Structures are given as structure tokens and as C-alpha cells.
Amino acid sequence: MFKYDLVVIGSGVGGSSAAYQCREEGMTVAVIDKKPFGGTCALRGCDPKKVLAGVAALMDQNRRMKGLGITEGSRIDWEELMAFKRTFTDKVPQSRVDAFENAGIDTYHGKATFLSKNEVLVNGRKLTFDRLLIATGAKPAPLYFTGEEHLSTSEDFLELPHLPKKLVFVGGGFISFECAHIAAQAGSEVHILQGNDQALEHFDQELVKFLVKRSEELGIRVHFNAAPFLIEKKEDHYEVYADQDGENIIFTCDQVFHGAGRIPDIEDLDLEKGRVEFTRDGIAVNEYLQSISNHRVYAAGDVSATKGYPLTPVAAKESMVAAENIYLGDGRKVKYGLMPSVVFTEPKLAIIGLTEESAVKKGYDVSVHRMETKNWYTYRRTNEPYAMVKTVVNKKTGKLLGVHILGGNADDMINYFALIMNFDLPYDEVREMIFAYPTSASDLSYLLK
User: Fold this and answer.
1) Which part of the chain is the Pyridine nucleotide-disulphide oxidoreductase dimerisation domain (predicted)?
2) What span, in angstroms and rounded, lies between the C-alpha atoms of 287 and 139?
3) How far is CA 109 from the centre of its chain?
4) What one-character DSSP code corresponds to residue 307?
């Protein structure tokens, strides 16, 4: 039997931040992961995806500038791109293990299951703990239709040795749109099947419609009210059957991908044996990220049922707060603030705060400002066909409730608004600031109405 002050299940940012912090405080720490060490973001998510999305964005800009100083002729070499991507991911697992061990943290590569409220089993070894942090992240949600076992995942997409000629994505969320744009820029035929009439449901739907329009101009077919109910594997292809407004339609493709949402990855943990309560949203925790049913257990990241978004920076923040509560005693709460989110398509789509609809539902009297910015210098110089900023303002206070951006620099712009809104910076002072010009930031003074 091995006894630790802290056992962490999960080696991504949600687990590793706490592991290092607690070890620095002199605690004995072990980290367990059933997958290669490093977590979703570094190995199977945002980091490798951004490498691919960056190349796709270069291709999009190259094509937009045809006849404006650029001669068309470049193409994406998928095999070369994947080799480049692997320069970011291949060394991560061993480097993470080495870093843990150099810090005096024990590592276990295997599936962890609870034996009791203070014991877990991994690779036949019983580990006893004083505190345990669950940071196992999320996994694709079950879709409950015949043939769903034929669905590939976003992880599979990011490891494709060769890009299929024809792809179908089930679901109209982040994963589908981001991967679809990458594949389309690389020359594939792409279809997205969305079960209702709204894609990217948490984003401003006016801007989503422009993104859908641009996606279709790039050759991506977005099918609304198309609910898959069957996938059949044939000798050399797949057939996806969907119900679209009462009519059965069939899509033939080389590979089908799951892009219809993710759920907390808790199924293998035997939480009942650990007396750890959970809901469909994840581990049930209090405001200190502590299990409501087992005071020894904490949870952080996508696996925890908190108000934090399923985003890497949120997981890191929750992990650090959980660590402080573990070694100092409960008392610290996560200050989430307003969390920005970005869809890395081309153009990019970003949000912080409330949409117009959600603000009205919350009882705010709002004014909405729409600014089509494609003819502004920032966007016209790279011939962007769609660019827009939409702000939702509280009429009573004049303060921003939400900001929504569509454009090639939306990822940078939304972070400026995150600073302004979270720190309640006076708009007059921001407008008076002298920013480097011409840059995205120099547009801020015109956007703060």
C-alpha cells in the first residue's frame, strides 16, 4: 500500500497545477493518468488544433489576396502539416513525466478507480490518500443512435495520417466548425449536420449566421434540422442517415466525426465506492471545489460541476484554487469573472458576457450596437469578406454586458474587452489611451460607444 497526502487523477492543466503547488508545500503527491501524460489541451485539443488552424488561416488569407499581390498556387500538404504538429505533441508525455518526477511527484500510468472514500486502485496498486483531486476532463457525449460506434473523435481528426476526401461532422459546435474549416482549406468536401436550427448555440446568432455563410462559401455544407439516426459502414465508405424536417437523407463519406458535445469523463472512476456524488454536469462540488459528499475529494476543470466554462484557462485557475484549499484549508473561491471564448475558424468568432437574448431574459434594458467593420482598414487590408462587432449595453448604467466579434483578429480583440469589462476600466480613459497604430487595439476607441 502506498500513502500520499494528495493523489491527482489527470495530468492536464487541471491536475498538474495543483500537483506542483502542493508538492512545493511539502506534500507527498502522486499523479495518475490513463492516457499519455499531458492532458487534452497539450496533446489532443487546443494546442495541436491551433497549429492546424493557423495553417488553414494562412491558406484562407492567401486565397483572399489572390489578384491583390498574391498569385494562387499554394496548397496544404497534410502529411507535412501533421509532421509539424507532432513537433509540438510528441515530446509532451515524457517531458511531463520527467518534470513530475524531478519535482518529487510519483506518476502512475493507468486507470484509477475508487476502492473507498480514501483509497484508489491503479495498475493493481492500492493508493491511500488524505486528499484527492479529480481532473479527468471531458469526453464525447453518447449520442444514442445506431452505428455511433463508427464515429471518430476530434482526437482522431488531429491524428489523421491522411486527410479523407469527404467528411461528415455530427453536431454544429466548436469542434465541428473548427475541424471543418481546417479540412475544407486542405481540399476536402465537408458536411456539418446540426440537429436543430442553430449552430454554435452559445454565441450571438446574428454573427453565427455570417460565419455559416462564409463557411458555405468555402465549400462547407451546413445542414440544419438534420438529426442523424444511423451510421452504416460499407466496404470503402460510410453512410450517414439523417432526418431533416421529416425527410430521410443519406450522406456518403470517408469518415464521420463526433462534434455534438462533451461530458465529464467520470464513468471509469467508480465514484459510488468513493462516496463522491455527481450530476450530469460532473463532480458535485461546493464553492471551494470540494466534493459535497466526501470532504477528502476535490475536482477541477471540465469534470467539475462549477459555473466555469470548459476551457483550459478555467481548468488551470480552478486547479490552483483547489490546491490552496487543500494545503491551507478551505476558504478560497474561484473568481471567474467574465470568461471570453473563441471559435478558431476563419473568420474567428468570439464572445464575452451576455448575448442580447440572454441579457433581456435576465431583465436588463439593453441597447445593441452593431458595427460592420469589413471596410475598416484593419480588415480591408487583408480583404476580409466578413467582420463585425456587436456590443450589448446596459441602458441604465451604460456598461457593457456583452461583446461579440467576428473577424480574423477576434481572438485578440476579445481579450482587450475582457480586461476592460473585468476590471471595469473607465471607457473614457480607454478611448484616451494611445495605442500602437495600425493595430487591432487602435480600433478600440471606435468600438466603445
Assistant:
1) 339-442
2) 24
3) 25
4) S
d(CA 256, CA 166): 9
Q: What is the pLDDT of residues 181-229, one digit of tens each?
A: 999 999 999 999 999 999 999 999 999 999 999 999 999 999 999 999 9
Retrieve residue 236's grid coordinates. 470503402
Instruction: Tell me 146's DSSP state.
Output: B
Q: Is 397 helix (H, G, I), strand (E, B) or coil?
A: coil
Q: What is the pLDDT of residue 1?
A: 64
Q: Give the per-residue SS3 of 193-254.
A: ECCCCCCCCCCCHHHHHHHHHHHHHCCEEEECCEEEEEEEECCCCEEEEEEECCEEEEEEEC
- Three-class SS of residue 109? strand
The set of cell numbers assigned to 83 is 509532421
Cα separation, 88 vs 158, in Å, equals 12
Q: Which residue in 324, 332, 334, 330 sits closest to 22, CA to CA?
A: 324
pLDDT in tens, 10-46: 999 999 999 999 999 999 999 999 999 999 999 999 9
How far is residue 128 from each of residues 4, 22, 118, 125, 295, measured CA to CA in Å? 6, 17, 6, 10, 15
- Enumerate the known binding-site residues for FAD: 50, 302
The CA distance from 228 to 415, in Å, is 37
Residue 347: cis peptide before it, omega within 30 degrees of 0: yes
Q: Which residues are annotated as a binding site?
A: 50, 171-178, 261, 302
**Residues contributing to the annotated binding site for NAD(+):** 171-178, 261
Q: Which run of H or of E encompasses 166?
A: strand 166-170
Report the candidate in 256, 255, 20, 258 with the shortest Cα–Cα distance to residue 135. 20
pTM of the model: 0.96
Residue 256, all three cell numbers = 464521420
Strand partners, 256: 168
Residues 6+ away with beta carbon under 8 Å from 337 = 418, 422
